[in-house]
Design goal:
Layout (H helix, E strand, L loop, with lengths): L29 H15 L3 H4 L7 H4 L1 H8 L12 H12 L12 H9 L6 H12 L5 E5 L3 H4 L18 E3 L4 H14 L3 E7 L3 H14 L4 E5 L17 H6 L5 E3 L4 H13 L5 E4 L23 E5 L6 E5 L4 H13 L4 E5 L3 H5 L3 H7 L5 E9 L4 H4 L4 E5 L8 H7 L4 H12 L2
Parallel strand pairs: 1-2, 1-3, 3-4, 4-6, 5-6, 8-9, 8-10, 10-11
Antiparallel strand pairs: 7-9
Helix pairs in contact: 7-12, 9-10, 13-18
Length: 430
């Protein structure tokens, strides 16, 4: 009887089996059982811990009655522990308290590569470049409300989910922004998936109810909104978002990112992916904008919400605060002010929500307390007053946009470096 369970060599002769581990000699059914569990892992992933035919997480609980029978005890008198490996891990994390900081770099290599060749680029294109790096993440599901080619949310590496084939990682939602946002909420609530979906910023109005629920429920959903300002040009005021950034910034528990170049775009994406208690909006430009980052630090500066980008001396007379495509206007204004012996600094503000959470000391260091302040954004000026004080100036829009080439529209609304210089001189009485 025993001989039937002893392995045989290629000559069909039983050979001695020495067990040097806790598993010992396994029954013939083990191979089938293990294959079933591997198949479950293939299709369920981490969800198999709770939803498989034989859930993995509480497996020890299912063994209690069998173990009690073996030792002749009652079920309540027996506790089946985890594996030795799991128990050692639990023991380690109970007592191990590292003193140093953990460092995790997601995109530093790529940031350095982009800095080697700084060229004007629309941030929607910068976003696409980052998505190409992370498309293979198994839990990342992209999509767009019929604007994939315009908001650059679909890369060459994406496979579209179709009827009868659900193995892909990209969804064509159709012209239904509200439905897209609702579906992404559902995926986030299910767990194990990071959904992102794209449309134009102007169309965020259509998904606002579900977007608001994303924030209310604290879901990890990423909204990619391109064509973020009057900079989209000839499409005209019907498609030029004016009040939308202010609307979104007013929603509690929502981070609204508006990056100024490729580096900030990568940083904003990284920050959004790391966020676990709130959704994120990444607002991206249609038009090409200048590369404004000159040097890199070992920090994700955009994760601070706002930071000092450049200054002419340690005691600037003027602090220029801008986001997105208008940061390059601020940089150009700084250089022109320097030519007239007026010292200034440029603060990039990719995310007001994160900046407002920083310590008071940091905020006052970034936005110079003793300088005159000018904010610049090609959108409604609503909300910027908290940074420029009562004697500052918010340069932006108080009306709808125009239909014209974007540079002409910027000039029409005096969103130019020359206008900034003129305002700064007037504020200083020079």
């Amino acid at each position: 009887m025993l001989m039937n369970h002893i392995p045989k060599n290629k000559f069909d002769t039983p050979f001695i089996y020495l067990s040097g581990n806790s598993l010992g000699l396994q029954p013939h059914s083990t191979q089938k059982y293990v294959q079933e569990e591997l198949d479950a892992w293939k299709y369920l992933g981490v969800d198999g811990h709770l939803t498989s035919k034989r859930p993995w997480l509480p497996y020890h609980e299912f063994l209690t009655s069998y173990s009690a029978e073996i030792v002749g005890a009652l079920d309540k008198e027996v506790v089946v522990m985890n594996s030795l490996t799991v128990n050692l891990h639990l023991l380690m994390i109970s007592f191990y308290r590292p003193n140093g900081k953990r460092k995790k770099i997601l995109i530093e290599k790529n940031k350095n590569e982009y800095l080697k060749n700084p060229k004007p680029l629309a941030t929607r294109k910068s976003s696409e470049m980052f998505l190409e790096l992370i498309t293979s993440l198994p839990n990342l599901i992209g999509g767009s409300a019929d604007l994939a080619g315009s908001n650059n949310t679909k890369t060459k590496k994406h496979e579209v989910i179709k009827p009868g084939n659900f193995k892909g990682n990209y969804i064509h939602y159709g012209v239904r922004e509200h439905g897209m946002a609702g579906i992404m909420n559902g995926m986030a609530l299910h767990g194990g998936i990071i959904p992102y979906g794209g449309t134009f910023l102007i169309f965020s109005d259509y998904c606002k109810p579900s977007l608001r629920l994303s924030a209310l429920m604290g879901l990890k959903v990423i909204y990619v909104f391109s064509h973020d300002s009057i900079g989209l040009g000839e499409d005209g005021p019907t498609h030029q978002p004016v009040e939308h950034l202010a609307h979104l910034r007013a929603i509690p528990n929502l981070n609204v990112f508006r990056p100024a170049d490729t580096i900030e775009t990568l940083e904003c994406w990284e920050t959004a992916l790391k966020s676990s208690t709130n959704p994120s909006v990444i607002a991206l430009s249609r038009q090409k904008i200048q590369f404004v980052t000159e040097t890199l630090t070992n920090k994700n500066m955009s994760a601070l919400g706002g930071y000092e980008l450049k200054k002419t001396n340690s005691n600037p007379e003027i602090t220029l605060i801008a986001s997105g495509s208008e940061v390059e206007i601020a940089i150009d204004a700084l250089n022109k002010l320097k030519e007239t012996n007026i010292s200034s600094k440029v603060v990039s503000m990719p995310c007001q929500e994160l900046f407002d959470k920083q310590p008071k000391e940091y905020r006052e260091k970034v936005i110079e307390k003793n300088s005159k302040k000018i904010s610049i954004e090609a959108s409604s000026i609503f909300g910027w007053e908290k940074y420029v004080d009562s004697d500052g100036v918010s340069l932006g829009l108080k009306s709808f946009g125009k239909s014209a080439p974007y540079k002409a529209i910027y000039e029409n609304f005096k969103l130019t470096s020359d206008s900034v210089v003129m305002i700064a001189k007037k504020m200083l009485g020079k």
